[in-house]
Design goal:
This protein is mainly β and about 400 residues long. Helix content is about 0%, strand content about 45%. It has no helices and 33 strands. The strands form nine sheets. Strands 9, 10, 12, 13, 14 and 16 form a six-stranded antiparallel beta sheet that branches. The protein has a four-stranded antiparallel beta sheet with strand order 3-2-5-6, with no helix packed on it.
């Protein structure tokens, strides 16, 4: 295809003829094989299908190549590859997918659950990392690990089957309403095989209740609280692992609640209303039943925006705001980031005079000295208010 621009359509009458020169597209042939090198028939490679020998032919490709999805039932995917001319019939590798199946029962151990969910997620270990097969046109990842799969099921017999899983070591769990099964870990998924006969018996599960508050005890309303497990942060391979994130929003009194969770160590994470990209976490040990009360205290503060202008109101680039103590000596400003309180000796405006910004500043009165090349220094007093943005505009006089 080719994009044409720079032509005009008249307001009246017939438009002039538009001629577009289309170049002949390239033709590329290749083959799709499984993880043991056997041809895969019936795989879709873009608009083409592989034959019994796994081969395909694509026509009309642009010279730079094109991203195409490759998919086949029973294999992990779809995967994305770059198909480009000039490659001598490369192989695209599809990995045979794994599956799990079984039954979910109510607490009596006999009655099938009619509506339930089954969670599958990575369980670490040497095979608990993303498996990639090198292709001449690129690389691909499967569904697991690094993510999770959740299947929702309903029926009379409580049976389930989750397909299309990447061969790996996984953990599984079933839930229905406030009921949850014990965690089943260390399930090995082999290529092209189904782990059948899994049996989950639902039971009562614990809950976590708490509140999100400021250091002064004020509730933090309408903010997100996340729940996960330490494995997501401390995987031995440096990758995200363990159960998926769950999240809720605090109510008008800053309260939150998690139901139907598993026992063991968990991580609760709350966000500051004034610094959304940083989080404050606490560890919680959850028993097999009952309720755990857990509050999260998040720091608050104010924002500071500093601009410097000349007497005519023109912004001054690279102006400096040096923070001082009560005696006029340099004293860095304290602000909060994800590591705790930090020190900021000087705040600068941008090259074009745009405001210099710092968030989560400790609230209270401040003293500072504004300066810029070619201008006289100016000492200022101002106050940073909790939960507000302080816009500090300083007029500097030329030397």
């Amino acid at each position: 295809e080719r994009t044409v621009d720079g032509f005009e359509v008249p307001e009246a009458g017939e438009p002039p003829p538009l001629e577009v020169l289309l170049e002949e597209g390239a033709t590329v042939a290749g083959r799709v094989v499984d993880d043991e090198g056997r041809p895969v028939a019936g795989a879709a490679v873009g608009d083409a299908k592989t034959g019994p020998d796994g081969r395909f032919v694509l026509h009309g490709l642009p010279p730079a190549g094109e991203f195409l999805d490759v998919v086949r039932t029973g294999f992990v995917g779809p995967i994305s590859v770059v198909v480009a001319p000039g490659t001598d019939e490369p192989d695209i590798v599809l990995e045979r997918a794994s599956a799990v199946s079984g039954t979910v029962l109510l607490p009596d151990g006999r009655t099938p659950a009619r509506t339930f969910r089954v969670w599958v997620w990575p369980d670490g270990g040497d095979r608990g990392v993303d498996r990639r097969y090198p292709n001449s046109w690129g690389r691909h990842e499967g569904h697991l690990p690094g993510s999770y799969v959740r299947g929702s099921f309903s029926g009379e017999d409580g049976r389930f089957e989750v397909e299309g899983l990447l061969p790996s070591v996984v953990a599984l769990e079933a839930e229905s309403g406030d009921l949850r099964s014990p965690l089943l870990r260390g399930v090995v998924l082999e290529p092209g095989r189904t782990v059948a006969g899994l049996r989950f018996v639902l039971g009562s599960s614990p809950r976590i209740a708490g509140s999100l508050r400021t250091p002064e005890g004020e509730p933090v309303r309408d903010e997100m609280v996340e729940l996960t497990t330490p494995e997501r942060y401390e995987g031995s391979d440096g990758r995200s692992a363990g159960p998926p994130f769950r999240w809720v929003w605090t109510d008008s009194e800053g309260r939150f609640e998690f139901r139907c969770i598993g026992e063991g160590p968990h991580v609760l994470t709350g966000y500051s209303p004034y610094m959304r990209f940083y989080r404050w976490s606490r560890f919680v040990e959850v028993p097999s039943s009952g309720e755990v009360l857990a509050d999260i205290v998040v720091p608050t503060g104010g924002h500071l925006a500093f601009v410097a202008v000349d007497p005519d109101g023109n912004p001054i680039g690279r102006a400096r705001l040096e923070f001082l103590d009560g005696e006029g000596k340099p004293s860095p400003l304290e602000y909060i980031d994800g590591e705790g309180f930090q020190s900021l000796p000087v705040l600068r405006t941008m090259e074009d005079g745009e405001a210099g910004l710092v968030g989560q500043v400790r609230a209270g009165p401040c003293r500072a000295r504004a300066s810029a090349d070619g201008f006289l220094d100016e000492e200022v007093l101002f106050e940073v208010r909790e939960g507000e943005e302080t816009a500090l505009r300083v007029v500097l006089r030329p030397r």
